[in-house]
Amino acid sequence: MSEKRNLHLYFHPLASFCWKVLVAFYENEIEFESHLIEQANPEAYEELVRFWPFAKFPVLHDRARDKVVIESSIIIEYLDQHHGGRTKLLPADAEAALETRFQDRFMDMYVHEPMQKIVADKLRPADQKDPLGVTKAKESIEKAYGVIERQMSTRTWASGEAFTLADCAAAPALHYANRLVPIGDRKNTAAYLARLEARPSFKRVLAEAKPYFHLFPG
Ligand SMILES: N[C@@H](CCC(=O)N[C@@H](CS)C(=O)NCC(=O)O)C(=O)O
Predict the structure, then answer these.
(1) 19 lines ligand 1 (CB under 6 A)
(2) C-beta 38 within 6 A of ligand 1
(3) What is the CA radius of gyration of the chain?
(4) Closest to 74 measured CA to CA, from 149, 143, 165
(5) In CA terms, which of 1, 13, 64, 182 is 20 to 30 Å from 191?
């Protein structure tokens, strides 16, 4: 078994935070063993809960180093440190790394998590909806689009001219957010999303998710 086959990823092909790490795996063609979190595979879920009682995924288990890595951003930094390839996902320069981490946090907190909130609300029973929460989530995404629109007038990728962790974060966040809160005529943001969707790593993630798209609410 190759060293990389020691990487066991607990994920679902439709789950947005899983897309984020899949982009990183595919950027550097890192092999891994799949453990799909789905009803048909209760063992994977049991293992996930053993690793992480919150049962949030993705979770990475590096069996060779007996290391469980939790949180999408940390998984990507871990891959960069131990299985790095042609795409350096965290810049070596400290200041550039800080900007990359900031953009990653920004995409997660102001686009991705509000997007998740809107999706989760669609799945709630009719008598347990949270309209105020959904309104606030939409406002956050709109505001974030404004920030991205300004930033992307001078950048190719989220933290500069190189594809990084921040773009792994932006790809799922913007793809799904655009379905719920359209980017519309914000042309820099739309062009950035188009660049992300044309990136081979993300194209592959989208193609693999396609059979599951009917499960996406709305
Ligand atoms: N901050 C976490 C978020 C992970 C997360 O929310 N994952 C979703 C799937 S995209 C999940 O586990 N949902 C199932 C649940 O919340 O029970 C990360 O970056 O990995």
Answers:
(1) no
(2) no
(3) 17
(4) 165
(5) 13
Distance CA 22, CA 72 (A): 10
∠ CA 216-151-105, rounded to 5°: 55
Task: Parse the chain into domains and list their residue ranges.
Answer: 3-82, 94-199
- Give the tokens for residue 116: 């998740």
Pairing of the two strands 59-62 and 67-70 = antiparallel
What's the CATH class of domain 94-199? mainly alpha
Q: Could you tell me if the CB of 15 is within 6 A of ligand 1? A: yes
Confidence of residue 197 (pLDDT cuts 50, 70, 90): very high
58 CA distance to ligand 1 middle (Å):
7
List, for residues 125-164, the tens digit of each pLDDT value.
Answer: 999 999 999 999 999 999 999 999 999 999 999 999 999 9
How many angstroms separate the alpha carbon of residue 12 from the centre of ligand 1?
10
170-203 burial, b if ≥16 CB within 10 A, otherwise e?
bbbbbbbbbebbebeebebbbebbebbeebebbe
Number of neighbouring beta carbons within 10 Å of residue 114: 25
Nearest to 18 by CA among 177, 209, 197: 209
Instruction: Give the pLDDT band (50/70/90) at residue 106.
Output: very high
